[in-house]
Amino acid sequence: MRILVVGAYGMLGREAMAAARVAGHDVEGRDVDTLDIVDPQAALEVVADTEPDAVINCAAFTNVDAAEDQEDVALAVNGDGAGNLAAAAAAHGARIVHVSTDYVFPGDATRPYVESDATGPRSAYGRTKLAGELAVARANPDHVIARTAWLFGVHGRNFVDTMLELGASRDSVAVVDDQVGCPTWAGHLAPALVTLAQRPATGLFHTAGAGSCTWFDLTRAAFDATDTACSVEPTTTANFPRPAPRPAFSVLVSERGADAVVLPPWEEGLAGYLAARAAIQSKHTGGPS
Ligand SMILES: NC(=O)c1ccc[n+]([C@@H]2O[C@H](COP(=O)([O-])OP(=O)(O)OC[C@H]3O[C@@H](n4cnc5c(N)ncnc54)[C@H](OP(=O)(O)O)[C@@H]3O)[C@@H](O)[C@H]2O)c1
């Protein structure tokens, strides 16, 4: 297959490029410098030029807190932009695989969210991502919308990275223990997106790391795995006010049965990420980290 990855310089986009190549596909990548998805004509032209069988959209306005003050800017990318790319793919008979988020849900559930559960975003970012889901589904019947959560990978700043840096310089960190979600390694999600690009099934898919934990649990696990001698103290969301509200409970599971692409448990994702991170650090320092 020929696959066009958009948002190709981002944390997930880089992994998607690599995963598509590993799967033996012919891959082309674009980011905002060569394709601004806000421009519908540019999207049409790039898809016409590259002639993909599938487009994987990893491009997004991803600053959740900044979106509270810049919802119009975020909506242009996450809503209209996603729709533009889906329409361009449709015009050329290509499938669109679009990445969305647990933030489309209100986050007050007491059981995991499945694909058919009612949405109800509580943040500007979540509203713009939901607008993108609707725009993609409207513009291209041959669509996959893959919702994921708590993403980390070697090609971008992420929570695990931040905690490991703090853990190396402090004796103790306080971490929120009242938000539950699904940590997801980009190295697991990217091949899942490629699989979804290859398979005929369409619609919504929940694609997050299996299992669930709190940010506190994730930090504890990362410190244990790296022998980081920093204590982790549980704290509450109320003690860490942020501009955008965070979902308290946004565990994602799939009800898609045989069509589902089930990711490995988040603990395996963390282990994979830490190994990839250590390999990069060792390459930079010329020895084992
Ligand atoms: N990170 C998470 O925890 C998380 C959780 C759930 C879902 N997601 C979703 O996963 C996807 C990938 O996220 P990520 O963490 O890999 O994000 P990321 O690292 O911020 O990558 C997004 C990429 O899109 C580019 N971009 C922004 N505006 C664009 C535009 N108008 N046209 C084309 N490209 C544009 C960005 O360029 P600039 O850097 O120059 O802006 C960046 O290279 C997104 O759909 C996001 O909503 C992420």
UniProtKB/TrEMBL annotation:
Protein's GO biological process: dTDP-rhamnose biosynthetic process
Gene Ontology MF terms in the entry: dTDP-4-dehydrorhamnose reductase activity
A GO CC term assigned to this protein in UniProt: cytosol
Pfam family, one: RmlD_sub_bind
Signal sequence coordinates: none
Domain RmlD-like substrate binding: 1-275
Protein name (Swiss-Prot/TrEMBL): Unannotated protein
Species assigned in the record: freshwater metagenome
